[in-house]
Prior knowledge:
- The chain is mostly helical.
- Helix content is 61%, strand content 0%.
- The longest helix is centred in the middle third of the chain and has 27 residues, at 123-149.
- It is elongated, with a radius of gyration of 21 Å.
- Residues 195-220 are annotated as: Disordered.
Amino acid sequence: MTTRTPGRPRAFDRDAALEKALVEFWRHGYEATSISTLTAAMGIRPPSLYAAFGDKRALFGECVRRYQERHGALVARALTEEPTAERAIARMLREMAADYTDPSHPPGCLIITATASHGPDCADVAEELRAMRLATRQSIADRIAADVRAGLLPDWTDVTGLATFFAAIVQGMSRQAQDGATRTDLERVAALAMHAWPPPPPNPPHPQAPQRPPAPPRAR
Length: 220
């Protein structure tokens, strides 16, 4: 029979605790989520949190990586697997409509909302998430530019403007989900947004395979 040494911290499931921390940050944002609320949600004491994860900042970094693996990957898949940028971005928006309103987790996007409101002490966290959002916008622009080079879009296409437009749609969908929009609501937004897509040039080449730009990051 195994006995626990008096005073020794009780073992806990690190992976399960990390999942609960992710939900707390996702629901409340980085700054509003305190060590006390984290430990209460994770079912551990502060010394165990510090021993297992370092500090709040390091814990948040792990949560962001987990979020990217589970949710941010849909962007990379859409942009690399579809044969055209139009189909890739339409798929990306549809899948975001489903993910942002999935009742199994908090609404919206962690990368967009976690530092929507923050003080100077969280400036480094906000800048890190901002860089992730800009990287996603750039990956969208790269995918559009690849289709311009391939002759699938007219050469007058405003690549930067179009990428910025769709990045803004993504951010707006996240906010709408937090305000109670349904999956159907966001799918309608996604469908309407695609009306901004440029018309194809005369006699565009038929895409035989996805036009693959450099692999985009998984952050949203």
